[in-house]
Amino acid sequence: MTALVSIAIVAPLLAAACSLALRSVPIGRDIAVLAGLGSAALASLIMLATVARDGTHTVAVGGWAPELGIVLVADLFAALILPVALTIIFVVEIFAIGQRRTVWAANPESSGPLLCVLTSGVSLAFLTGDLFTLFVAFELILVSSYVLLTHQGNRSQVRAGMTYVVMNLLASTLFLFGVAFVYAATGTVNMALLAERIPQLEAGVRLGIGAWFLVVFGTKAAVFPLFSWLPDSYPTAPTTITAVFAGLLTKVGIYSMIRFHNLMGMDDLGPIMLLVAALTMVVGVLGALAQSDVKRILSFHVISQIGYMFMGLSLFTVAGTAGAILFLIHHMPVKAVLFLVGGLIENHEGSSSLDRSGGLAGREPLVAVMFAVPALSLAGIPPFSGFVAKLAVVSAAIDQAETVVVVAALVAGGLTLMSMAKIWNEVFWGRPADGPRPSPAPRRGRRTMHAATALAVAGTLTVSLFAGTLLDLSTEAAEDLRNPEAYIAAVRS
Amino acid sequence: MNTALLLAVGGLTAVGLYLLTGRSLSRIVIGYSLLGHATVVALIAAGGLAGRPPIAGGAALEDMSNPLPQALTLTAIVISFGLTLFLLALARRQRTLSGDDLVEDDLEDRRIAAAEGSGEAGAR
User: Fold this and answer.
1) Element containing residue A208 per DSSP (H, E)
2) Which of A68, A162, A163, A286 has the most B C-beta neighbours within 10 Å, making it the best mutation to test the interface with B?
3) Which of A337, A407, A433, A430 is nearest to A378 (CA)?
4) CB A328 within 8 A of CB A254
5) Is A62 exposed, middle or buried (0-12, 13-18, 19+ CB in 10 A)?
6) Chain B CB within 8 Å of residue A422 CB
7) In degrees rounded to 5, what are phi and psi of residue A238?
């Protein structure tokens, strides 16, 4: 088990080093990247099976006691989310290999190794059991994302990159201040020890810390009103990179909130958070309706959907947290697939702008199907995974009689469907746009891209197929988070 | 808690945040490094009063200063140093592309500004 935890974090880093060394040998480079990402994904799947059977497993790095050293904790929550995230990165990298010869591709020499570093950061962020290591993991993710976003150095990337970098640097600085506050108040940064000590602090200090980290993680997660950096920066990156960002980065913020605010018992912040959740859902989807570019529409939906997960968390009940976890599992693949389909649209139509495309369903029926499944899932139409996840979150809110947020969730759901229908109308139906069409990717690359997207669509269908099992696991994970005694005991032993 | 350190944190944060709100990336870089210093001082202040070097056998346990915040600070310094360099590289790239290092409006702002401009033109 210790080996599995290490592989998930270290294998991608090793792969990054190898692929940098093999920079001039394209095949060796690709094999190194795929091997690193693949082995991490495989390790995380085995980890899930082991944790589901044997319970939480902890690794004390270097054998230090939890008061002094770094502890990695593979509890059910981490083990559930990690395989989803790592599998997505692996599939996106396959897509990226197929996309190579097009003008929309990322530069393979730099994007491969950087994606590996990002993967390692994601694994570390999910598995870490202490607040400062979480900060380091965030930095690992962010630094690679800064470079991935701007690595081609064209004008729009640098313009969007500046806002993105400065915004996230500020959030990281606030994070570090938060660590200092927490350490001054409690004398530790270990989350299990914090879960014991923070609830004993006086209410003002406790809620101050909770609100501070709400801002820190909320900026990473792009909740209202801290989302403005997202829709401007995401669409400028190459498709594969946007797919990884949209699928994972904001979710790491939500993940950290679900873990931190539940473990530390910040239930008193619930009412404010519910209001923020309602605003996030509605404002995000209204933003999406105003856009006329596939990638920008999808970026605004990232914000709107974050609202649902935030809503589940803000209820501070087992059912709500379980809903939020299930929503995470559903949302990560769905969002990544939608951006991959956005990449396919770019490839076939020459642009992701709604005005300059049309009639794609007739020419590429497969692409239309691969768009329709995740789009309906995003809007929450049965029998797709989005329906199950939304049902879990909304019914948890109805149990608590939180009418406002339930109404907001339903309105946002309807508007999401409208916005997906808009993409469908403009891109897949209607008449093809006039003007010269660019030469699409070579046939072999196109096949790889289609295969990778189809694989990801199959993944989202798997989520809806096993929704019952996943909801049970999520509920179990949520119970562990709401009652941290078992978590504390596992770290202390 | 040491009042001098707290005042230093407050001052550095205030100046850093002010510079961060500017448009020129070189000012932002300076603002960011000041904010980085502020966090370092805050972490050190969180570790309690200063004491003897924390080396095993070097001093009595009560006289030692707390080594953990120092370890955290070192990590934070390295990260902020690397990111400062990245910001500078970004500023240089922006300068080659556009001749200055100013942060430009985002797409939405420009669209709204353009729509307002045309609306006014129509009214006239």
Assistant:
1) helix A203-221
2) A162
3) A337
4) yes
5) exposed
6) no
7) -55, 150
- Domain hosting residue A363, numbered range: 2-492
Closest CB to A165: pick one of B46, B90, B108: B90
Hunting for tokens 């209202």 — which residue is that? A224
Domain range for B84 is: 3-123
A264-319 pLDDT, tens digit each:
988 899 999 999 999 999 999 999 998 888 889 999 999 999 999 999 999 999 99
- What sign does the dihedral A123-A126-A127-A130 (CA atoms) show? positive
A53-62: Cβ within 8 A, 24+ apart: A54/A1, A55/A486, A55/A490, A56/A480, A56/A486, A56/A487, A56/A490, A57/A1, A57/A2, A57/A5, A57/A490, A58/A129, A58/A490, A58/A491, A58/A493, A59/A1, A59/A2, A59/A5, A59/A6
String of DSSP letters for A325-391: HHHHHHHHHHHHHHHHHHHHHHHHHSS-BSTT---HHHH-HHHHHHHHHHHHHHHT-TTSHHHHHHH
Q: Is the whole model's pTM more than 0.90, yes or no? A: yes
Query: Encoding tokens for residue A394?
Result: 């909304």
Is B5 in CB contact (< 8 Å) with chain A? no
Residues belonging to chain B: 124
DSSP A190-207: BHHHHHHHGGGS-HHHHH
**Shortest CA distance from B97: residue in chain A:** A155
Give the pLDDT confidence of A169-221 residue by residue, as tens digits. 999 999 999 999 999 999 889 999 999 999 999 999 999 999 999 999 999 99
Check CB contact under 8 Å for B90 and A162: yes
Three-state secondary structure call for residue B64:
strand
What is the pLDDT of chain A when averaged over all its residues? Answer: 90
Domain CATH for B67: 1.10.287
